[in-house]
Amino acid sequence: MTTKQNSRVSHTIGDAPIEPQYADQMKTLARLIDNYLNGDGGEKKNGFIIMMFPLRGHDGRTNYISNAVRADVVIMLKEQIKRFEGQPEMSGTA
């Protein structure tokens, strides 16, 4: 969904918090993954993101959680998309 404000296009997909029915599950997964990758304390060495969306009936809504700084995640995602777009067409279910 996009809206136009002051001659600037504003994208609103992803601006909302995690959908309530998934919030506890995603927070639990994030804690488990963070503890597994980084231990219980000290400096974090590994970042991660979880993006969850419906496989059917998708209306553009994606739930997101991470242990990383959002600005760093944005850079990483842009770089990853460039890699995906540079790959030849692939098929499969994985």
Q: How much helicity do the residues have?
A: 25-40%
Following the backbone from N to C, one meets helices and strands in this order, namely: EEHEEH
User: Average pLDDT, to the nearest integer?
Assistant: 82
Estimate the strand proportion.
15-25%
What class would the helix/strand composition place it in?
A: alpha+beta
Task: Give the overall form.
Answer: globular
Strand arrangement across the biggest beta sheet? 1-2
Give the domain tally: 1
The total strand number stands at: 4
How far apart are the first and last residues' alpha carbons, in Å?
29 Å
The biggest sheet amounts to: 2 strands, antiparallel
Q: Spans with pLDDT under 50 lasting ≥5 residues?
A: 1-11
C-alpha-based Rg, rounded: 16 Å
The count of helical stretches stands at 2
